[in-house]
């Protein structure tokens, strides 16, 4: 099906490249964009390009950031003795939204998946091991020329950065690849005497026992907590 305007057609085509956006949604978005004030459209386009150009990876935790190390790694308010390991930067966002977690993060950049040719060396696992192995690691050490100005910002005392890692929380997704990766990371961390835990898995809030699949239900049973 072709639209009457080639320009609109090309916009629909570009928008359909985004995840979860099918052709119908892309057409709806395109129609909406046509009705938007020009400045707002320019703002969206600029934000997309700026994100692509300016956002970099934190050299400590591998989360996306404008500054290196990222604000979480630099913050004196975070509990430096706990590292939560996740697959992707979007997982950090999800955990931050809960407002429950006050520790640091480590983004692996994916999961071990032999079928897709992704092995442990393709992920930031060795960097995690290095963080755990170094009891006096100073995360504020940035590579020269990476835009880090060397200021002791927000008065974060150097002492606060010298907390050894005591616990690593594995927050991979509950599927075969996530399980494999969690197991592998757990094995790699075993020699360092840190507590390694995995986030509990179970029924989604608002979920119905009746509609939960067996794996979810059995995991919910396994991960049961005292009342
Ligand atoms: Zn960081």
Plain-language structure description:
The protein has helices at 6-15, 23-35, 38-54, 71-74, 89-98, 125-133, 176-189, 214-222; strands spanning 56-57, 64-65, 79-86, 103-107, 167-170, 195-198. The protein is of the alpha/beta class and 227 residues long. The chain has two domains: 6-38, Helicase, Ruva Protein, domain 3 (Orthogonal Bundle), CATH 1.10.8; 64-202, 3-Layer(aba) Sandwich (Dna Topoisomerase Vi A Subunit, Chain: A, domain 2), CATH 3.40.1360. Helix 1 (6-15) crosses helix 2. The chain is globular and about 65 Å long. The site of zinc ion has 8 residues, from helix 4.
How would you summarize what this structure contains?
About 40% of the residues lie in helices and about 10% in strands.
Keywords:
2 domains, 227 residues, globular, single chain, binds zinc ion, 38% helix, two-stranded antiparallel sheet, Helicase, Ruva Protein, domain 3
Mean pLDDT: 85
Structural class: alpha/beta
Secondary-structure element series: HHHEEHEHEHEHEH
Number of strands: 6
Q: Which overall shape is indicated by the principal axes computed on the Cα atoms?
A: globular
Give the C-alpha Rg: 22 Å
**Per CATH, what is the topology of the largest domain?**
Dna Topoisomerase Vi A Subunit, Chain: A, domain 2
Helix proportion range: 25-40%
The DSSP helix count reads: 8
How far is it from the N-terminal to the C-terminal residue, by CA? 57 Å
Spans of at least 5 consecutive residues whose pLDDT stays below 50 are 137-160
CATH architecture of the largest domain: 3-Layer(aba) Sandwich
Instruction: Trace the largest sheet across and list its strands.
Output: 4-3-5-6
């Amino acid at each position: 099906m072709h639209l009457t305007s080639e320009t609109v057609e090309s916009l629909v085509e570009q928008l359909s490249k985004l995840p979860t956006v099918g052709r119908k949604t892309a057409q709806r978005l395109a129609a909406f964009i046509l009705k938007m004030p020009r400045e707002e459209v320019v703002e969206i386009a600029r934000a997309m390009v700026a994100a692509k150009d300016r956002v970099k990876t934190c050299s400590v935790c591998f989360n996306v950031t404008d500054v290196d190390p990222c604000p979480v790694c630099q913050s004196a308010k975070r509990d430096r003795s706990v590292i939560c390991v996740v697959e992707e930067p979007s997982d950090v966002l999800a955990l931050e939204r809960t407002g429950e977690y006050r520790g640091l993060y480590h983004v692996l950049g994916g999961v071990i998946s032999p079928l897709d040719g992704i092995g442990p060396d393709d992920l930031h696992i060795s960097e995690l091991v290095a963080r755990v192995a170094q009891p006096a690691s100073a995360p504020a050490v940035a590579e020269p020329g990476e835009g880090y100005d060397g200021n002791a910002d927000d008065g974060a005392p150097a002492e606060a950065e010298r907390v050894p890692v005591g616990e690593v929380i594995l927050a991979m997704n509950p599927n075969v690849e996530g399980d494999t990766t969690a197991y592998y990371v757990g094995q790699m961390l075993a020699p360092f005497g840190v507590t390694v835990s995995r986030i509990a898995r179970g029924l989604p809030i608002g979920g119905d026992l009746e509609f939960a699949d067996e794996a979810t239900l059995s995991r919910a049973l396994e991960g049961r907590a005292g009342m």
